[in-house]
């Protein structure tokens, strides 16, 4: 029990340090620009060495996306836990819509999105991380009890859900963060909802 508690404390401490690094990095990126900000700058802002930084993040750009793996695990778990008879698209709408609100709830995210949009290396890394997340979500859709989804359908549904979130995000960015992001997400999911199968002939 003691060992488990210590491991849990270490993990919480690790998450806190990663969050602090991400916050400081964002401030420096916005103030100086991504390319002009070094790993040494980010590390120094929290009182650590460059070598210590790489204990928490493999590369500089991951400081903004380092929590994607954890988020992917939680989203996958929530997808798998949805009601057995619920349509896959509805599961995606409910779970991803809720996560969209949790991830992008503040004005601070507006600066982050603008930074990513303006920085090719960050955009590339974001797409890579999103692909990883979408693979996890597609697997979770197929793993649901009674799912019966094939890989193609799961991939297609998750790609469409990702497109809905991306479109809502870009529209929110165009509005300078004034648009109702949740309403944009709902609208996008409604527009892309799969058509019901045709009724069987009598």
TrEMBL record:
InterPro entries assigned to the protein according to its UniProt record, in alphabetical order: Homeodomain-like_sf, HTH-type_TetR-like_transc_reg, HTH_TetR, MftR_C
PANTHER family to which the protein is assigned, alphabetical: HTH-TYPE TRANSCRIPTIONAL REGULATOR RUTR (PTHR30055), MYCOFACTOCIN BIOSYNTHESIS TRANSCRIPTIONAL REGULATOR MFTR-RELATED (PTHR30055:SF238)
Signal peptide positions (record): none
PROSITE patterns associated with the record: HTH_TETR_2 (PS50977)
Native species: Actinomadura rugatobispora
Protein name listed in UniProt: TetR/AcrR family transcriptional regulator
Record field: transmembrane: none
Acyltransferase recorded as keyword: no
All copies of domain HTH tetR-type, residue ranges: 15-75
Residues of the DNA-binding region: 38-57
Record key words, sorted: DNA-binding, Transcription, Transcription regulation
SUPFAM superfamilies: Homeodomain-like
